[in-house]
Every structure is written in structure tokens, then in C-alpha cells.
Amino acid sequence: MEQEQIWDSEAARRYDTPGTGMFAPEVLGPTVDFLARLAGDGPALEFAIGTGRVAVPLAERGVPVTGIELSAPMVEQLRTKADEATIPVVMGDMATTVAPGKYSLVYLVYNTISNLLTQEEQVQCFRNAARHLRPGGRFVIELGVPELRRLPPGRKATVWHTEDGYIGLDTYDTLRQHLVSHHFHYDESGQARLYRSPHRYIWPSELDLMGQLAGLELESRHADWRGSEFTAESTSHVSVYRLPPEEKSTTSGR
């Protein structure tokens, strides 16, 4: 399934959940605080900006934000919150599309790099981030840790969340490092709606190698946006990669 088919008008319409889920203050607040500190006085670029979940509050903090986005319906939803002058968006994919200018910060949140389904595309995404960064600038990725320890031998699926009206499960293709997330929403009438999204999962060490291939250095890794320690039991991470600053040239005279 192509990404344009996944992030269609229906997905854009139901994406925003103000005050709850990934829009909850306890989730969004630390994310924006973290990114605002890294951006400092410089501009930021969000890959896969979507409906502006992070970009809108970050711009309200005074950080100039530009976006790259593949889905026109998602951008239409963003435009109900911020106009083009406030948050400009370049249409295209995050692996190859170029936005004008250089940035202090490029960021890619909520597992979105895994929407690129090949290792080559994911490496291109890192290189595209490096292409946009000023010397000393940072590329931030939020990504889950593959939970293969929860996958018993011979099984291809795990249930990762259940609650009234919802079941979430993942099916794995471990040969290709692929998984498909299945989201089942149902009501008391017995009617159910299924939403699916394909991903290529990435180990932290593989992610670091992608950074090296793009000329980026791992600066820090934490378990969450609050800076909790990343351990072997962490289920996700926020990783910060830095483009080395330009070395000052030295001249000698006679």
C-alpha cells in the first residue's frame, strides 16, 4: 500500500485528537520543550509535518518552522490551524525533497522514519536531513525499539494494546524487517473498522550507522522526551544526531 493511499482524506480527518492520545499535554509538552531547546534561535524543519501536531505549538513558541509532507489532505488539515506564511510546507517525500534554506534543527517524530520501507530510503532520509542542516545543527528522531522478544517462535503477530473499543496488533516479516500495524476499532453494535500501516523497523545500532553514512554523529539518546535513561528495557528512544561544526581555518603570515 502506497503512503499516499494511507494518509488520505479520511486519515487526515480522524488524525487529530485534541487533548488526548499523542495530542495529550503530557505527551506533546515535553516534545515541544525538547525541540525548542535544540532549535535555539535558529529555524526548524519537520519531515512529514502532517497536520502540524508538533509544528504548530513549536511555532507558537517562536521557532520558525518549515515542513515537508507527502499527503495533501494532511496539509489541508494543517491549514485549518496555520497559514502558509506561518508554517510553509514543501510537498514531497522526506527522503529526497529539498526545502529552501538551512536549519539549526531537523526533526522526525512518532516512528515516521519507519514509513520508509527500504533501508536505502531510510539512509536517503538521513542524508536529506544532513543536506538541510547548518554546521553544528541537529537531526532528531523519535522511534520505537523493535519488540521481537515479545514474538514467540513460530508466531507472526503480537497484540500490543487493548482497550474498550480498540485492539492493536502487529504482524512481522522478520526476513525483511517489516511489520504491519493493524488497528481495529469496534463499537457495541459489533461493527468494526480496520486501519493498517506498513513499516520497516530499525534497530538503534542500525540507525546510528545510517547517521554515520550521512556524516552525522550520535550526540545523545534517551528513552523519552523528558530525558529518561535509555536502557535495554526501553521500548522507544529519542536520538539526537549532530552535523559536525565547520573547523575554523588557520592562516599564518610573515
Short description:
The chain contains seven helices and eleven strands.
Number of helices: 7
Strand-pairing-aware structural class: alpha/beta
| Helix content percent band | 10-25%
- Low-confidence spans: pLDDT under 50, at least 5 residues? 249-254
CATH class of the largest domain: Alpha Beta
Q: Please tell me how large the radius of gyration is.
A: 19 Å
CATH hierarchy: architecture of the largest domain: 3-Layer(aba) Sandwich
The CATH topology name of the largest domain reads: Rossmann fold
**Globular, elongated, flat, extended or rod-shaped: what is the shape?**
globular
Whole-number total of structural domains: 2
The secondary-structure element order is HHHEHEHEEHEEEEEHEE
- Tell me how many strands there are: 11
Largest sheet: 7 strands, mixed
CATH superfamily of the largest domain: Vaccinia Virus protein VP39
Can you give a write-up of this model?
With 254 residues, the chain is α/β, with parallel strands linked by helices. The chain has two domains: 185 residues, Vaccinia Virus protein VP39 (Rossmann fold, 3-Layer(aba) Sandwich), CATH 3.40.50; 50 residues, Single Sheet (N-terminal domain of TfIIb), CATH 2.20.25. 25% of the residues lie in helices and 30% in strands. It is built from seven helices and eleven strands. The chain has a seven-stranded mixed β-sheet with strand order 3-2-1-4-5-11-10, with helices on both faces. A four-stranded antiparallel β-sheet has the order 6-7-8-9, with no helix packed on it. Helix 2 runs parallel beside helix 5. The chain is globular. The N and C termini lie far apart (67 Å). The C terminus is likely disordered. It comes from Streptomyces thermospinosisporus. Keywords: Methyltransferase, Transferase. One of its GO terms (biological process) is methylation. It holds the Pfam family Methyltransf_25.
